[in-house]
């Protein structure tokens, strides 16, 4: 073979080898980016500030050996291009201790997701510096024993799509709320900037105010859960018409008044839960438009009047609890159309007449409670 030909072959081989090496290195770097030293240091200092009970997700957080890259640590998610820490999921990690404003957690300014749920932060307050994590889209601090006032700086988190502060409650103590909105920081102040919010859960956060009309102006909520918050006043009926709202839970707000709207044909509502509130009035016949509804709960409310036959249109419903209202008249035979129904409670109302034999159509029904009504005649029994 001539020298010039050998040279050409060798040159092409070297070029191909270099190209292969470049591509292989690029793939590795994009798949496993080395996290930034200041961020790995911040994570380690955060770990050291807490008492940890094994087992825990953060046991792998240490430098040396195969642990140099914090992007490979459990619970840590990095941007595949920049290597910055963008996600931290430390839920149910057996963490104990306090988080204060000097915590290195707040040096992770690129965070888009932070989940500290199901830990024990020993009644510490949520630091005001949480507002500096302006890129957060997901924030979950539920069931983690935070106490005191929710800092007003949380309202600066305008990119949030999911916000959960629920169940920070002293179940083992005197039963009081331990996390609350301050006098000068109302629910309206909190949500005013949350224009991208899809999921909100403030259950057991002491709010003790009305539900602001501004909440019906939010464009994208899919789930609003405000259980036992001390809410009062009139619930804005327009919230029921939010175009993407699927879940509405207002349980145990005993001073919260309201009534049901005329429901739209294309309403996506799946859960309406109103037990132990002051909601009242008649069930609208348009409730039959809620074809996606799976759970309808008016336990111990103040609804009255007849149960509309259109309730039989709710063919997706699996649980219906109308206990302890003032419903009267006959149970409509259309109830036999609810073939997915598993739980039905109609007790403690003023219902009369024979119970419709169409109840026998409900082959999936496992719980039925009818006590303290004025039914006449035998109740049909489904035999398996």
Protein architecture, described:
With 384 residues, the chain is an alpha/beta fold. The chain is built from 3 helices and 24 strands. The strands form 4 sheets. The chain has a 13-stranded mixed β-sheet, with no helix packed on it.
Keywords:
membrane, leucine-rich repeat, 3 helices, 384 residues, transferase, alpha/beta, seven-stranded parallel sheet
Q: What is the H-and-E element order?
A: HHEEEEEEEEEHEEEEEEEEEEEEEEE
**What would the principal axes of the Cα set say about the shape?**
elongated
Largest beta-sheet characterization:
13 strands, mixed
Kindly estimate the percentage of residues that lie in beta strands according to DSSP: 15-25%
Q: Uncertain runs with pLDDT below 50, 5 residues or more?
A: 5-9, 13-18, 20-30
Mean model confidence by pLDDT: 90
Major sheet: arrangement of strands: 2-3-5-6-8-10-11-13-15-17-19-21-23
Number of strands: 24
The quaternary organization reads as single chain
Straight-line distance between termini: 89 Å
Structural class based on helices, strands and sheet pairing: alpha/beta
Rounded radius of gyration (Å): 28 Å
DSSP summary: helix tally: 3
Measured as a percent range, the helix fraction is 10-25%
Subcellular location: Membrane
Membrane topology: Single-pass type I membrane protein
GO cellular component, one term: membrane
Keywords: Glycoprotein, Kinase, Leucine-rich repeat, Membrane, Receptor, Repeat, Signal, Transferase, Transmembrane, Transmembrane helix
């Amino acid at each position: 073979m001539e020298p010039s030909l050998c040279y050409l072959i060798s040159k092409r081989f070297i070029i191909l080898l270099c190209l292969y090496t470049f591509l292989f290195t690029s793939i590795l770097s994009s798949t496993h980016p080395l996290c930034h030293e200041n961020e790995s240091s911040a994570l380690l200092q955060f770990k050291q500030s807490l008492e940890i009970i094994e087992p825990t997700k953060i046991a792998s957080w240490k430098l040396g050996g195969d642990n140099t890259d914090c992007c490979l640590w459990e619970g840590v998610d990095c941007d595949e291009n920049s290597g910055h820490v963008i996600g931290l999921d430390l839920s149910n990690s057996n963490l104990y201790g306090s988080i204060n404003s000097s915590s290195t957690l707040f040096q992770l300014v690129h965070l888009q997701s932070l989940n500290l749920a199901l830990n024990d932060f020993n009644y510490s307050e949520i630091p005001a510096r949480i507002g500096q994590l302006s890129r957060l889209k997901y924030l979950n601090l539920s069931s983690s024993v935070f106490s005191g006032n929710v800092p007003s700086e949380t309202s600066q988190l305008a990119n949030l799509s999911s916000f959960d502060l629920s169940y920070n409650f002293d179940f083992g103590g005197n039963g009081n709320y331990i996390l609350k909105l301050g006098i000068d920081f109302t629910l309206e102040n909190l949500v005013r900037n949350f224009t991208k919010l899809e999921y909100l859960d403030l259950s057991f956060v002491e709010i003790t105010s009305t539900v602001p009309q501004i909440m019906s102006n939010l464009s994208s909520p899919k789930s609003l859960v405000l259980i036992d918050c001390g809410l009062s006043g009139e619930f804005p009926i327009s919230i029921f018409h939010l175009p993407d709202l699927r879940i509405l839970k207002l349980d145990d707000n005993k001073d919260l008044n309201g009534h049901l709207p005329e429901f739209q044909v294309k309403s996506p509502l799946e859960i309406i839960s109103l037990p132990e509130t002051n909601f009242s009035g008649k069930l609208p016949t348009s409730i039959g438009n809620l074809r996606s509804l799976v759970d309808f709960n008016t336990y111990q409310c103040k609804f009255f009047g007849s149960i509309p036959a259109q309730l039989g249109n709710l063919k997706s419903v699996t649980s219906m609890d109308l206990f302890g209202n003032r419903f009267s008249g006959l149970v409509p035979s259309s109830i036999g159309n609810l073939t997915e129904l598993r739980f039905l409670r109609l007790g403690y109302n003023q219902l009369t007449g024979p119970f419709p034999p169409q109840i026998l159509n409900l082959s999936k029904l496992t719980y039925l409670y009818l006590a303290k009504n004025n039914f006449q005649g035998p109740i049909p029994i489904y035999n398996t």
